[in-house]
Amino acid sequence: MSRFLSPKHAHISPYVPGEQPQDMQYIKLNTNESPFGPAPGVAQAAAEQAGKCNLYSDPECRAVRERLAARYGVAPENVLLTNGSDEALNFIMLAYGDEAHPVAFCDVTYGFYPVLCRLYHIPYTEISLKADFSVDVEACKKTAGALILANPNAPTSLALRRDTLEDMIAADPNRLVVVDEAYVDFGAESCVPLIAKYDNLIVVQTFSKSRSLAGARLGFAIGNAALIAELDAIRCSLNPYNVNRMSLAAGAAVLDEDEWYMENCRVIMENRQWTAERLRAMGFSVLDSSANFLFAAHPALTGEALYKKLKARGILVRYFSAPRTAAHVRITVGTRQQMQALVDHIGEILKEVQA
Length: 355
Ligand SMILES: Cc1ncc(COP(=O)(O)O)c(C=O)c1O
Prior knowledge:
Layout: E1 27-28, H1 42-50, H2 62-72, E2 79-82, H3 85-96, E3 103-106, H4 112-120, E4 124-127, H5 137-142, E5 146-150, H6 162-171, E6 177-180, E7 201-206, E8 219-223, H7 225-238, H8 245-255, H9 258-281, E9 285-286, E10 293-297, H10 303-312, E11 315-316, E12 328-332, H11 336-354
Parallel strand pairs: 1-11, 3-4, 3-5, 5-6, 6-7
Antiparallel strand pairs: 2-8, 7-8, 9-10, 10-12
Helix pairs in contact: 1-8, 2-8, 3-4, 3-7, 9-11
């Protein structure tokens, strides 16, 4: 630590992203990206904007906001564009959390929530998932502070129904509820239709997963116009040109390709089912996924051991060493070919360890 760092940052613990090794070509099933390249018009739309990079991007992100509003049946005033959905979460924490305004989230969930709380000195409560990794709805209702729920949850892949979430949102109109729907397009119910009814709800989504734009960094928040205006004020206080020209063009182009995106989601869901069946047949317990990944454990191998053996064979998955998750690996669902390779290698690994 240098002598210049503010003491308030002496104990931050940054988020550790999934590895992106460059040493060889891996089958990459570790960061929940889409295995499919961007939609047909995306590369050209982004390239055209690359030629105009001497000019700032539209600070109001109008082309994408208008398309998103039309797509989700809300007004443009209900939509905020961000540099990945991580930035939407960042703005939300900055706007609504502080020493006197705590936050609550599940003990097994997206690792960025506690990172942001520590950065901003926001006290937080971790609500234990039940033994089967499902969300303890009653405990969520009882815990004080703004509630952040990933739905589907990561890394568990389990989703709550919209009526269960509505029950939590309606339970206390003076409590902010943030539903992080990064993976919602893979089979869960979105809370966006509840926005018109509840002014204590913010839904966060991303273009990184179902829309194949992880590298473009594009996310968004949808909520009541007053909440969105507050988040926009935070945005303009930090970085008014938070989304660059190429990403805005890519986002608009992919929103014009709804059938392409829905077909990709369908293929991922089919491959998820195919893979889960094969893993279960090999003795894995696999949670019922509503996301583009599987959370699986095998009695013969820890998550770390399986991760290492797969990496040695050129396949990357992710494991989380905390006690509750250490038995599991999180496997991104890729193409059928990638999943076939995964299943074949796991079969060989199990033969080795069980010999
Ligand atoms: C639950 C959840 N929320 C948000 C994000 C952030 O995604 P991005 O910043 O790429 O939109 C992720 C990334 O993996 C995630 O798993």
